[in-house]
Amino acid sequence: MNRLLTYTFTLFILLSQTCFAKDELLIGYYGRPNTASLGILGQNNIDDLVKKMKKRKENFEKELEEKLDIKLAFHIIYGLATPDAGRRNTYMLGLSHKTLMRYINRAKEEGFDVIIDLQMGTNSPTEALNLVLKYLKYENVHLALDPEFKIPKHRRYPPGKFVGHIFGKDLNDAQELISNYLIENKLKKRILMVHMFHKRMLRKKNEVTTFENVDLVYNIDGHGDPAVKIKNYNIIYTKNEVAVAKSGLKIFLQKDMLPIMPPKEIVGWKARRGRQVWIKPYYINYQ
Fold first, then answer.
1. Predicted confidence (pLDDT) per residue in 217-273, tens digit
2. Residue 52 and residue 282: Cα distance in Å, rounded?
3. Which one of 22, 125, 246, 270 is most buried, counting C-beta atoms within 10 A?
4. How many whole angstroms separate alpha carbon 126 and alpha carbon 172?
5. Do the domain assignments include residue 13?
6. Is 47 exposed, middle or buried (0-12, 13-18, 19+ CB in 10 A)?
């Protein structure tokens, strides 16, 4: 009888933990160190940045009544697209190892994640990722691709002149590269994020497959009118994408129309001018 009671009680605890586990929410502060024009991360020294991020987390927890499990991340532009082709003809400017490690080490101290962002230029997704795979040995590090600044190998125009794109096959190749590296080095699952503000930025999306040790995130990052942002998010991230990828929503602190979307609008608990987020984002990205 005692064994039956013990078993029943243990089963109840396990079910309770499963049924009532908090949904996760990752909040990232985006930019490039020491470059104020590219986002909030580069507008602050690392100590002030950490304080602002913790305050943001507290605000979310208060507004959302602590119903979500919230984690913070430094979202760092590592591969920056430039008008100059550079020595390698990639139109890319990297970030120093020393600078990146300052953020990786501080993130580890704070319990934060780090997202290393790549704008690609003429690099393919796998070529861009190969430059930073080694940082996955740090368990708090994840990766991101930004198709906006992808340009053809023939380089007839610089990054940013036209909105770039990648294909579903490119994304599969990128996931496979990361997956193989994780397996070979006995590392745990990681995030691969893809920025997009138009559905044409990831073409042949229906061909994208899933990998057991890669968490794919589609980060919807247009700026302007919050109601239009919500509409765009709902168009790009639908129930068809849920089985393949989690979602993200980017907030531009200086380019979005005021008032800036509060937490309840971001997660879809409240509407803005009749428009409401249909599927709660996993990732919130502040620039």
1. 999 988 889 999 999 999 999 999 999 999 999 999 999 999 999 999 999 999 999
2. 20
3. 125
4. 10
5. no
6. exposed
What predicted TM-score, i.e. pTM, was given to this entire model?
0.90
CATH number at residue 99: 3.20.20
- Alpha-carbon distance values, 247 to 107, 126, 237 (Å): 23, 22, 7
Structural domain of 274: 24-286
User: Angle at which helices 97-110 and 46-63 pack, to 10 degrees?
Assistant: 40
